[in-house]
């Protein structure tokens, strides 16, 4: 009975695991699809888009402050039959309703400067949106390539492990028949165990990369991400080489655009501080209406229409405005220095990224040849070992050299990709 229940439990467990695997969502992405999905779903980008709407709302607030403002009011009064006694006559005070509509507009230079500042803020929000979109696309592309490179590393390691296991089995069989030393088999066994540990570590690294991809795409951790583009199809050495001849226009760089607009914003602060001591002109019109709930003669001394104007001119503020303007000028001077330093830094960065990409391309060519040579050496040593010409130490050394060459090869691929992405980001391509 226990055996039957045990079998039933295993069947239920297997069915539940199968159902979980079947119900797990799988989403396949090419590189372009992954970028587009991230742009559409990334919350950081959504916040950047909201900032544009906020900047637009702030701009309209500045515009609305320069337009006429209209307010209306109504009130009801009842003096409970009271009549005003003027001696010779009495004037009735019947219940009445009053209506008041007031239109006013106030203008000064600070409002115009505030509108200009709002326009600059809107431009900065738009630049930030495009910069965030560029950053997300670059991050997704880097992670996409990192996953493909790690998977390629796994394939190479598993292939090496298979060869090493075969050599160990052959050596162990030779030991069993007395034609080889046990130490040779033990050395190969250590090599096999080391490679198995390297493969396990690489698999964990690959899972971390996929988790980072899920974060960028705003996907749940239970979603299985499948990458449909292959490494060979994406590593375009021709396009990377063509990028080396691209010219750098600093005005296309988002970081420089943002800093330039911020510098203009700092300059406008000088005018804004200065206009605090400027005149303010206010013009208003007021309409007053009254309706009495009686036909008795009464008194109304409020004129129905009134037009007025007022001009306010600050006379003396004990140097407050002067100090504020001076502070704004100093801040603008600092910002100009920062802008100039950034121009120099971006130009230096451009030449450094050109050097990095050129070096990565050259290194890739060398590592590609190196991995081919190391593979042939390992196969040759393994063949000699099987015929008793080479030692197990020779096999171990050649295997280690092959793994190092393969690691350097896939790393050179990733260096080309990272150098290309960094240069494209700087050039805004």
Write a structural description:
By secondary structure, this protein is an alpha+beta fold. It has two domains: 25-64 and 108-278 and 318-427, Outer membrane efflux proteins (OEP); 68-107 and 279-313, no CATH class. 69% of the residues lie in helices and 13% in strands. The chain has ten helices and eight strands. It has helices spanning 2-23, 31-41, 43-64, 109-176, 182-217, 231-234, 237-243, 254-274, 320-386, 392-427; strands at residues 26-29, 69-77, 83-85, 90-92, 96-107, 224-227, 280-292, 305-312. The strands form three sheets. The protein has a four-stranded antiparallel sheet with strand order 2-5-7-8. It has a two-stranded parallel sheet with strand order 1-6. Strands 3-4 form a two-stranded antiparallel ribbon. A hairpin with a 4-residue loop joins strand 3 (83-85) and strand 4 (90-92). The longest helix has 68 residues, at 109-176. It is elongated. Mean pLDDT is 84; it is low at 4-23.
CATH class of the largest domain: Mainly Alpha
| Number of discrete helical segments | 10
Portion of residues in beta strands equals 5-15%
Q: Tell me the domain tally.
A: 2
CATH architecture of the largest domain: Up-down Bundle
Q: What form results from the Cα inertia axes?
A: elongated
Uncertain regions spanning at least 5 consecutive residues: 4-23
Number of strands: 8
Task: Give helix and strand order, one letter per element, not per position.
Answer: HEHHEEEEHHEHHHEEHH
Secondary-structure-based class equals: alpha+beta
**Cα Rg:** 39 Å
User: What would CATH call the homologous superfamily of the largest domain?
Assistant: Outer membrane efflux proteins (OEP)
Averaged pLDDT: 84
Strand order of the largest sheet: 2-5-7-8
Largest sheet: 4 strands, antiparallel
Distance between the termini: 71 Å
| Helix share bin | 55-70%
CATH topology value of the largest domain: Outer membrane efflux proteins (OEP)
